[in-house]
Amino acid sequence: MSAIVAAVSLSAEHVFSKENRDGIRLTAGVGAVGDTHAGQTVQHRSRVARDPDQPNLRQVHLIHAELHDELRAAGFAVAAGDMGENVTTRGLDLLGLPAGTRLCLGGAAVVEVTGLRNPCSQLDRFQPGLMRAVLGRDADGNVVRKAGIMGVVVTGGDVRPGDTVGVELPAGERRPLEPV
């Protein structure tokens, strides 16, 4: 199965979950048009409080639908957009991508992967125990963050459910994803 966009979501308000849409428009250097987290500089409240001029490396949040499947199997009621993502994919190991990977969404949009979403306590306010469920440990005991990845829009375009997702790996040394 090739990778696809399973859902797209956004919210103009600073709320945890985002509403599913028929499509979203990504703008280069900004993010999803109409989304509260779109902007050239940070938009997340905690980051704005620390330094409102730092670049926004979290313009677009992506989660793999397989995480939703895993969480539902564990008893959580989650669906696309519920954990604040803009783009839900299926058929792609987002967490295994190196930093700098470019994701080609639909016909034109390109999002460059900047890092991992760092899960926060808002997950537990949404559903008790959810934060723990999106954190794991690898064979070496290192923390594994499963709550998705973040990126910046390199090339704008419209993105809709059913669109294909192409992957362009970065040249040179591959850097693992770190929280951003």
From TrEMBL:
Pfam annotation, one family: MOSC
Source organism, top-level taxon: Bacteria
An example molecular function term from Gene Ontology annotations: molybdenum ion binding
InterPro entries, alphabetized: MoCF_Sase_C (IPR005302), MOSC_domain (IPR052716), Pyrv_Knase-like_insert_dom_sf (IPR011037)
PANTHER family noted in UniProt: METAL-SULFUR CLUSTER BIOSYNTHESIS PROTEINS YUAD-RELATED (PTHR36930), MOSC DOMAIN-CONTAINING PROTEIN (PTHR36930:SF1)
Domain MOSC: 18-168
Protein name as catalogued: MOSC domain-containing protein YiiM
